[in-house]
Amino acid sequence: MIRKQSWFPILYMFCVTAFFSSIVIGLTRLTSEHVEGNEKLAFERAVLSVLSDVDVEAMTRLKIHSTFTEIIDESDESSEGVYTAKREGKIIAYVLPIAGRGFWAPIKGVIGIETDRKTITGIAFYEQNETPGLGAEISKAPFRNQFEGKMISSQAKPINFRRPGTTLSDNEVHAVTGATQTSNRLENIINTELKKWRDQSVKQDENSRL
Amino acid sequence: MKVAESKTQKLIIEGLWHNNPVFKQVLGICSTLAVTNLVLNTMVMCLALVFTLSLSAATVSILRNFTPRNIRMMVETLIIAFYVIIVDILLKAYWPEMSGNLGPYVGLIITNCIVMGRCEAYGNSNPPGKAFMDGLFNALGYSFVLLIIAVFRELFGMGTFLGVSVPYFSGPYWDKWIIMVMPPGAFFMLAVVVWVFRSIQLAKEDKSK
To answer: Which residues of B touch A134 (CB under 8 A)?
Structure first.
C-alpha cells in the first residue's frame, strides 16, 4: 500500500505544501496592487499633509493622488532626496523625508519646510509602530501641530525636545509623556536630517551668491 | 444538571468556561499581553483568531485520516500558517491602518499555542464539524477574556473606550495609569482576571460537591 512506503510522508508534505502555497500566492498576486497602492497613498497623504495650504483630511484617495502628482516634484539627485511642492511653476515649499529607528520599528515621515528654508510647516509619519497610546502619539495631531511655525535653529540641535510642561522657544517642542525612548529617537532622526538640510541650504546660498 | 446537555452544548461550555484557553489552560498568553492595550486592535485580533482557529482545526480534521503520524505537526503548522497569511494579506490590502497597528502580531498567531493546541488535542481525532465548533468556541473563550482585559487597559490607561473619551476617566480627576498601556499592565490585568474567574470556578466546584 502506498501509505506504507517510506517516501510517502515526503510526497504528502510536498502535495499539501504545493496546494496551500498556490492559494496564498494567488491571493498575494490578486491583492498586490492594492497593497502597493496603500503604501504609496500613505506616503502621498503624509507629504500633502505637511503643506500649509492643503487640507488632506477632506480629500478622497483619488484626489490625494491627483493633487500629489500635480504639485509635487519627485526628488532627484540635484535636490538630494528633497521633494519640492510647486504651484504655477513657483516653489511653494520643500518636503524633507526623514527615516530612522524608532523604539520598536523604523519611523518614516516627512517634514514640510517653507521657501525661506527655515520655517517648518508641518510634520507627518507614514510608517511607525510605536506603543499605542504612548509613542504612537507622535502621529497624532496634538504632537504634530506643535511643529507648525517652528524655526530650524543654527544651534547644535536644530529642533529641541523639551519635557512636557516647560515653556518653549521657537525651535522647541514638547516630548511625548511616558514615551522617552520614542521621543529621544525621534529627536535624533529629525535632527540628523535637519542638520543635513541646514548644511545643504548654506551651500546653496553660497552658490547663489557666486 | 449536566445530563441534558447535548454534545455541541458541551463543546460550547467547555471552550467558553470549563476549559477556557486563557484562564484554565493558560495558553496564548503571549498575544494576550501584546495586543490588549486598545479595544479595537483586540477585536480585530480576536476575529483573526476565531477565523484561523476554527478553520484550521476543521482542515486538520479533514486531513486527519491521510496525514502520516510522524509529520502531522508540520502539516498542522502549514495549515495554520496558511490561514494566518490569508488574514494578513487581506488586512494589508483592505485595512492598512489596522495592519500597521497590529504589526507583527497577526503573523504571530501562527505560533499562538491555542491554535496548535486545539488542532493537536481535538482536530486530530474528531470529525471536521466538531473540530470546527471546538475551535470556534475556544477562540471565542479566548476572545472574551482578551476583550475584558483590553477594556480595562484602555479605560485606565487612556481614559477612552474604542477611541471615544469616557467621562471622568478622560477628565482631569483621573490620573492616567500609563503602566496599563505598557506591557506590564497586561500582566497585572491578566493576573486579576485569572484570579477572579478561577475563584468563581472554584466556588462553584465546592458547591457541587
So the answer is: 178, 181-182
Closest residue of A to B79, CA-based? A20
Task: Please return the burial class of B161, using the count of CB atoms within 10 Å of its CB with bins 0-12, 13-18 and 19+.
Answer: middle
Interval A167-179: pLDDT, tens:
888 889 999 988 8
The separation between CA B148 and the C-alpha centre of its own chain, rounded to angstroms, equals: 11
Which cell numbers hold the place of B94? 483592505
Q: Which residues, at least 6 apart from B157, have a Cβ–Cβ distance to it below 8 Å?
A: A133, B37, B176, B177, B178, B179, B180, B181, B185
Residue B174: burial class (beta carbons within 10 Å; 0-12, 13-18, 19+): middle
ipTM of the complex model: 0.75
The Cα-based distances of A190 to A10, A33, A117, B21 in angstroms read 53, 32, 15, 45
Closest approach of B96 to chain A, Cα-based (Å): 7
Taking only the tens place, the pLDDT of each residue in A33-46 is 888 888 888 888 88
Q: How many CB atoms lie within 10 A of CB A190?
A: 25
Strands (E), chain B: 160-161, 164-165
pTM: 0.73
